[in-house]
Amino acid sequence: MFNVVKGTHDVIKEEAKKYSYIEEVMTNIAVIYGYQEFRTPVIESSDLFTRSVGDSSDIVRKEMYTFEDKGGRNITLRPEMTAGIIRSMVNAKLFAIQDYPVKAFYCGPNFRYERPQQGRYRQFNQFGIECTGVTTVERDVEVIALGYTMLKYLNFGKVKLLINTLGDEQSRENYKTALKEYFGKHIENMCSDCQERYKLNILRILDCKDPADRPIIDGAPKIQDYLTDAAKERFEKVKEYLTKLEIPFEVDQELVRGLDYYTGVVFEFHYTSQNGNNYGAIGAGGHYGNLIKEIGGPDLEGVGFAFGIERLAKVMEDDNLFPNLDNTTDIFIMPMGDKARDFAVGLAFQLRKAFYSCEVCYEQKGMGQMFKKAERRNSKLAFIIGDDEILNETVTVKKLDTKEQVSVKLDDLDDFLGKYFNSESEHHHHECECCEGDDCECKHDHEEGHCCHHHDGCCKKA
Ligand code: HAM
Q: CA 102, CA 89: separation in Å to the nearest integer?
């Protein structure tokens, strides 16, 4: 017996469908916002992350899967995707034609050697976007709005959006000086991590999770008091725009994020499910002023975010935010005897070619067992084929919902199926599974008319 490696997990069957659904919804919206897909390698030079995520971050200091390959290269399994995406943009010279922004969306696994717990894995999946070659505050807001829209289309009702600013260079220098002075008085009584952060990157101390350090951190100076006028004005603009777009947010002055590349606005999306589960930020991002230059590109800025698919799937399961993703089988073929089995091989091939999902029971089973199998596969129709049917060139079709049974000539089968499944899909289109009229108790977001977005807006409640 082999088990999955600690901190990793298999995503199979229904769960994999949920992940695909999340990725599909996010992809559709990213495309509407003008993003194109980027796929970059899982392995990168270790230096890339030391440079970008930063050697004072926990990720680089303690969490990277780093190894030397057989050619003596220092390699790291990516702990996040922004650095690789920017590297790919620089390598492909996408900044050369100066047609900005360059917009990328991406999805894939990441690796961090963290302490595994609910919603925290050592291999986890992200869906993210990067909007680069930009400086304006409007782009920052556009990116936050994109993240918010994705969550809305995933059926999230209330999400908590936390925002903060790390200001411009001058603001951060002023702030760091103030923090040095403040923490200088307390650092001896703080955890060993904080003592290291004090030396490496003092902002990181604000991120400390050690409860014993909290009271000291709570008393620390706040960034807002050290912002230059320009930085203050820019952050005000972010707030104004978000208000205008009716995107609710809270300012969290301790939000500094765990990666070193951020400058300017940073943000996190949080969600607590009805039963009180909160697995940490479901998505997060921010503006980065120096990253592109650090990675060897021109002096351009960017802004982006990434969602954690595992965390999204967990809270969506908790609160029933997924549409019905059950597998269905259009046709379940039940051949009775050798001749029928022989015939079923060709029939199944043709049906599948015509895009009907189809399964055949080649195993010798009794009728009852075959109907059970059909049921387990959520089949719509059963085709019963025996010697008589072969002789008469017909199939006996049983509609599994109404139990109605008809005999259909092979020549008429195309027509029959066309009619049957067309009227089926119309029926589906008008049927809303989550919303039971005015007394609907589903937790979906009726205000936005997204309750049944997967049915193409069939349920538009005011
Ligand atoms: P991050 O905050 O490190 O940011 O990760 C983004 C999201 O990935 C988190 O909000 C969380 O949902 C998920 N996540 C992170 N670590 C784990 C884990 N161990 N297990 C499960 N889920 C996890 C970044 O990675 C930045 N690259 C985001 C970004 C893009 N900033 C600008 N552009």
A: 8
